[in-house]
């Protein structure tokens, strides 16, 4: 290996070694020989590339790709961040108010987990599972969820162009959305049938628990003796918001379990004053039920406070934090995840419904179906339980 090549390898390897050291977060129990073996292979690969590639290698580009690949090998919410992106986080500056109402994940391209009720994306007909192949003509094939989420934000009234794939990859659809401020309130309700209150939670925020409690109170005064809580296509909001709403329904027991690498599991339990809502309850879920909504559904199902009706949930219940690297770049890294009340995995696993009902598929450009088989199944189950 030439001295120039050794210098290049050292430049590239140093941050990776730092990554491995910071990897006290990642792999405290990893065998040391395995770590060094992988670093040796990495060193060999870099040496071969710099010595044998057909043209001079852009070291910065190779390094960026290598670090991005490390993050991409984890769950979809992790990302390798440039020094400028790290500064954005450290500044504490809020994201622009304008949004299109999409929660994203990664699967080859960026992909829609859910669209918020009444948002520009929802009004344009975007649905759970749609692939976002490009944002403003920038391909998302190598775009992290962190970057994609920020690319969708902007000033209210500004526009963003999305290239969407649903079903046929050879037939992409380009749509233009106008960014809007997030609609409120998060909770709405109505009587779905005599004696059955229907509560829709479109997002979980700081005031969602109070809104839900007030909405259930109104429905109870209107004669509701049973509740259906709909968290389909609900993926937005802080995870603690889901637990706050769960406390309204669960008076005692474990709501969730939180774990981080190298630390004892933390049990999050119901406390004094919890469980104010005692009406029999069912929860509607689908593949767009994610994050705080999953924690809410898990807490109720795990304490036998509700049946889950619908589809398997998405499986995203974790927290990320910024870990800075010596050169000013950083990792947006999952460091904490939540488990169900029984201690089984929730993050990247999701919840199985008590009664499985598939949501109807809709071709791009078609109107949403006027029937709701998931809600109908919940009403049917309530009627059967009343008759029993």
Task: Tell me what you see in this structure.
With 388 residues, this protein is an alpha+beta fold. 34% of the residues lie in helices and 24% in strands. It is built from 11 helices and 17 strands. The protein has helices spanning 3-22, 24-27, 32-52, 59-72, 83-91, 120-123, 145-152, 208-221, 239-249, 292-302, 373-387; strands at 79-81, 102-107, 109-115, 131-135, 138-139, 159-165, 173-178, 187-193, 196-201, 226-230, 254-260, 266-269, 281-285, 306-310, 318-324, 330-339, 355-356. Strands 2, 3, 4, 5, 6 and 7 form a 6-stranded antiparallel β-sheet that branches. The protein has a 6-stranded mixed β-sheet with strand order 8-9-10-13-14-17, sandwiched between helices. Strands 1, 11, 12, 15 and 16 form a 5-stranded antiparallel β-sheet that branches. α10 links the parallel β13 and β14. The N and C termini lie far apart (80 Å). The model is unreliable at 16-31 (pLDDT under 50).
Q: Could you tell me the number of beta strands?
A: 17
Which regions have little confidence, pLDDT < 50, spanning 5+ residues? Answer: 16-31
Overall average pLDDT: 88
Structural class: alpha+beta
Radius of gyration: 24 Å
- Strand coverage percent: 15-25%
Helix content: 25-40%
Q: Main beta sheet: strand number and arrangement?
A: 6 strands, antiparallel
Please tell me what the overall shape is: globular
State the helix count: 11
């Amino acid at each position: 290996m030439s001295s120039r090549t050794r210098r290049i390898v050292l430049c590239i390897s140093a941050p990776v070694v730092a990554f491995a050291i910071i990897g006290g977060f990642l792999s405290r129990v990893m065998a040391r020989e395995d770590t060094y073996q992988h670093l040796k292979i990495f060193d060999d690969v870099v040496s071969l590339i710099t010595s044998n590639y057909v043209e001079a290698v852009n070291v910065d580009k190779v390094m960026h790709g290598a670090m991005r690949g490390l993050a991409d090998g984890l769950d979809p919410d992790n990302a390798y961040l440039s020094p400028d992106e790290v500064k954005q986080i450290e500044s504490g500056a809020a994201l622009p108010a304008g949004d299109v109402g999409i929660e994203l994940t990664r699967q080859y391209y960026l992909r829609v987990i859910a669209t918020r009720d009444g948002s520009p994306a929802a009004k344009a007909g975007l649905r759970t599972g749609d692939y976002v192949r490009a944002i403003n003509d920038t391909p998302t094939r190598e775009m992290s969820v962190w970057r994609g989420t920020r690319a969708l934000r902007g000033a209210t009234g500004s526009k963003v162009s999305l290239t969407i794939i649903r079903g046929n990859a050879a037939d992409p659809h380009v749509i233009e959305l106008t960014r809007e401020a997030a609609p409120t309130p998060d909770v709405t309700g109505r009587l779905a049938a005599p004696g059955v209150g229907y509560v829709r939670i479109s997002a979980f925020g700081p005031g969602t628990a109070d809104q839900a409690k007030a909405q259930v109170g109104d429905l109870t005064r209107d004669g509701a003796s049973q509740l259906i809580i709909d968290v389909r296509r609900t993926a937005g909001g802080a995870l603690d918001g889901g637990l706050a709403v769960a406390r309204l329904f669960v008076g005692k027991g474990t709501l969730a379990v939180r774990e981080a690498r190298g630390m004892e599991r933390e049990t999050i339990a119901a406390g004094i004053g919890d469980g104010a809502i005692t009406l029999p309850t069912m929860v509607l879920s689908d593949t767009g039920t994610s994050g705080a909504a999953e924690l809410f559904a898990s807490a109720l199902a795990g304490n036998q406070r509700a049946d889950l009706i619908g589809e398997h949930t998405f499986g995203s219940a974790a927290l990320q934090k910024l870990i800075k690297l010596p050169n000013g770049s950083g990792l947006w890294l999952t460091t904490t995840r939540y488990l169900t009340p029984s201690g089984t995995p929730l993050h990247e696993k999701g919840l199985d419904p008590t009664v499985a009902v598939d949501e109807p598929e809709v071709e791009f450009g078609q109107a949403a179906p006027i029937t709701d088989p998931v809600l109908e199944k919940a009403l049917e189950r309530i009627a059967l339980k009343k008759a029993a």
